[in-house]
């Protein structure tokens, strides 16, 4: 039977999490709720507006959809580039430094776990700061594409203030008519963000890597995910099948609450910091200095 807490007392709740998960190491699986305190909205959290993300089939099958997406992304990704990690990200990095978290598997594409200092991160759904060619599979930096898109669209200028943004750097624009899309400089192929779209499969080697991490871990800590999509939910099911304790920290119900030993209905930052305080070795934490700037792929 699943135990449910509402984290009125974060310190006491953290102790309960610790009692269930033990000394680890546990695998952390994170979703959009970890990044909301950085100003990045989530998909399905309380109060989130309905969203209809573009599917892979739409993107590859219709040039008009691609133009629409790249125009919106041209605005939204600049907002993402300015976001900074929050205390929830930093707490997970501290938990890794303390030896409690073995790795972070994130469904987010914002790269903020690395910016916070997490060393072993699997970007399950890809990264917003990279672009892949669907023809030759060349991967380039999104910042390089930004220069090309700005040159192709010198009169296209929209500020991000008061524009609805999505977790994948998509921005809601009323019109994208006339926006010019750049093709691959190597082969002329179609460029796509290096992100797993709805309707697209996570690469099999990446899935197998995460299954191996589940196998190695003593338990699973889910933070900030409703576990609605199968790509993340399958790892919770695998951990439960192996008899490993699962703790879910999320605002609102998830698709795997029945598989968890404990669910905590609360925001991520405060609870993860309380958990880090419960586990952390002060000497280790003092020696751990997270990077002050986010990481990015090299210019090509």
From TrEMBL:
Does the record carry Transferase as a key word? yes
What is the protein's name according to its record? NAD-dependent protein deacetylase
Q: Which cofactor does it need?
A: Zn(2+)
Catalytic function, reaction form? N(6)-acetyl-L-lysyl-[protein] + NAD(+) + H2O = 2''-O-acetyl-ADP-D-ribose + nicotinamide + L-lysyl-[protein]
Q: Which organism is it from?
A: Nocardiopsis kunsanensis
What EC class is this?
A: transferase
The entry's family comment says: Belongs to the sirtuin family. Class II subfamily.
Q: Does the keyword tRNA processing apply?
A: no
Binding-site positions, NAD(+): 31-51, 107-110, 224-226, 250-252, 268
Q: Where does Zn(2+) bind?
A: 133, 136, 184, 187
Which gene name belongs to this protein? cobB
Q: Which residues form the signal peptide?
A: none
